[in-house]
Prior knowledge:
Protein name: DUF4255 domain-containing protein
Structural class: mainly beta
Helix content: 10-25%
Pfam families: Pvc16_N
Amino acid sequence: xxxxxxxxxxxxxxxxxxxxxxxxxxxxxxxxxxxxxxxxxxxxxxxxxxxxxxxxxxxxxxxxxxxxxxxxxxxxxxxxxxxxxxxxxxxxxxxxxxxxxxxxxxxxxxxxxxxxxxxxxxxxxxxxxxxxxxxxxxxxxxxxxxxxxxxxxxxxxxxxxxxxxxxxxxxxxxxxxxxxxxxxxxxxxxxxxxxxxxxxxxxxxxxxxxxxxxxxxxxxxxxxxxxxxxxxxxxxxxxxxxxxxxxxxxxxxxxxxxxxxxxxxxxxxxxxxxxxxxxxxxxxxxxxxxxxxxxxxxxxxxxxxxxxxxxxxxxxxxxxxxxxxxxxxxxxxxxxxxxxxxxxxxxxxxxxxxxxxxxxxxxxxxxxxxxxxxxxxxxxxxxxxxxxxxxxxxxxxxxxxxxxxxxxxxxxx
Length: 413
């Protein structure tokens, strides 16, 4: 069976109807079968492709090799839906209904007698089935509702299955020279939640307080925990995923991945991570990330060799928070705020938002006025509090790429 196109299939079926119409001897040679809905003085038979849908049966067939994405290297299987109708209009613009019925009879008989199409008009070998659909009269009328023509005698056909040509595979799966049956009782690892502890000190107090956050949110050098099942039983690797990276990164030894129990895994966030395949180093800036557990098991084959099996968990989100390292009063309503990052190649101007209380400050290119802030270097901002604030402690909230910093306050004299 060879790959074809929609145009080629439509043309091959129209040729069958055209031959039947010519051989009937009832019409002059000018009568044509066309791939459209015929109107007005355009007389003939119309075989119009009005809808296609992908065949569910062939949708998930495997690719012949290991190319990615595999769907591009498998043929697209389509079911085609056609409307068959006829048009016969005399010179006085009156319809010749009997003539239309006779043309429809010839066309329907031709499709009935050639319901199994094995070759196209260009000589390609195919295997198509042409099926007359069973529609109620009311359903048939609905197809004409949006048309400019009045309701006419029509028939509806499904043609299946048409295979569109895929991309040429660049690889090909090799022979299976040995096999074995392996049973994994635990199944794949599964992450069900993530959590972290955020520490803060309320104004006027000296004893830190802690609050648990889930899903996990933590600044760099803080620990986050992943809870789930199936974390033990093999070699463990944690993959980190960010929309800013072209591929996942690996939480290496610097991240201190620690298996606390078979249901808990801890990580210490680091400022950089190495990508899985390229090995290049990427910055871990505030924002939303995801983690995935990769558990590797090694089993022996019947021939004595070893085979590696990778069990990969679902992705689960966690957030890297901005860490405010210092706040200093510069007098006159100005405050200098230090943070791990305010400028980065992966960040835009809109990624940094600063609030005092619930009031959002405006980014300024120069020394800010009341209610504004200026980024003076990659780790520093100078802000000026809005007018009208009462003396006392007011929450300072910094959001970078949508993630808010840990609780901090500024003291307005």
